[in-house]
Amino acid sequence: MEAIAAEAGGLEEAARLYWRENPSAATLRRDGRRWTAWTAWIVAAFTVPGALLLALEPLTFPVAALCFAHAWAIPWIQARRGARQVVPIGSERSVGRSANTDRRAERVALGLLGDLLDHVERELLAATGLAPQQGELGVWLVGERGAFLVRSAGRRVDCWCVRVDEADGLSAGDRVAHLLLALREDELGFAKVANLGFSGAIWRVRGRLPDRSRAALAAARRALA
Amino acid sequence: MGRLIRLDRSGHTTLAEWTAADGPRADAAATRFREQLELGMVASVSNADGTAEVIRELPLDAELVVLRRPIAGG
Questions:
Q1: What is the ipTM of this complex?
Q2: How far is it, in rounded angstroms, from Cα A216 to Cα A154?
Q3: Which of A161, A177, A184 is opposite residue B73, by nearest beta carbon?
Q4: What is the pTM of this model?
Q5: Which helix (H) or strand (E) segment is A125 a member of?
Q6: What is the pLDDT of residues A147-177, one digit of tens each?
Q7: What residues pair up with B11 in beta bridges, in sequence order?
């Protein structure tokens, strides 16, 4: 395969995406503000008409309730979609839960992944299914598909959709190792390759995660405090 | 002792082991390394500070070189 010119030590996968903006802390802040503005707009666009209807004619309560339901449901669906972009090891959608999983390969992969992490990180991975990585942009939590980025002193989480390009046959541990290595090689390149699926307050995503994985968000938040 | 491993369906496979002093084994490892890059694998070595580095030549003083598949946006 022809090598694509990449900055020294950077991701070739990112260099191929020449048309994409290079991410930075500033572009992430801007995108976060856009997500917040969009959510506020959705809430206002449905709440204000609902409130007006109630003020003009209380008998329109059923229609107003529908408006309020939309104002609640659309941001809820957005946050759930963001949370579902990240698949922790051992979660319902993990490849490790498949009947076809090669248990031996899974153990070998988890062993190598454990070697890539320090003691505390390894314990968090075992407890939550997400591998933590402190970066310049914040604390990343890497799943076998997708990653969270906790930033802004732990108040905001970004949900990134990213995966191994040809993951056929790879075990859950190896998928995490792939993403973790790529992230360590070039954090900004990793963010350039990944697609930002959601950005918002951490509590909005926390409730949509599997119970065991919520502790990873709390740990990332503590690390940034 | 350096080790070249590839993340694959078996968890990982050791493709080569070498020492800098052992010329033929180091050459064989470098050949395997180049073959894997030509197949589209990405090679990286971990640094002491927790980062990693993409490499295009096999560093003979490295303890562990990992070959992975490319990543993509979802």
A1: 0.93
A2: 12
A3: A161
A4: 0.92
A5: helix A119-128
A6: 999 998 999 999 999 999 988 889 999 999 9
A7: B8
Placement of tokens 């402190």 in the chain = A134
Burial of A192 (0-12, 13-18, 19+ CB in 10 A): buried
End-to-end CA distance of chain A: 44
Domain boundaries, chain A: 83-224
User: What's the pLDDT tens digit per position in A44-89?
Assistant: 999 999 999 999 999 999 999 999 999 999 999 999 999 999 999 9
Rounded CA-CA distance A185/A179 in Å is 10
> Cβ B44–A184 below 8 Å, yes or no?
yes
Q: Which residues pair with B55 in a beta bridge?
A: B43
Tell me whether residues B7 and A85 touch, CB distance under 8 A. no
Tokens standing for residue A171: 């075990």
Cβ distance A28 to A151 under 8 Å? yes
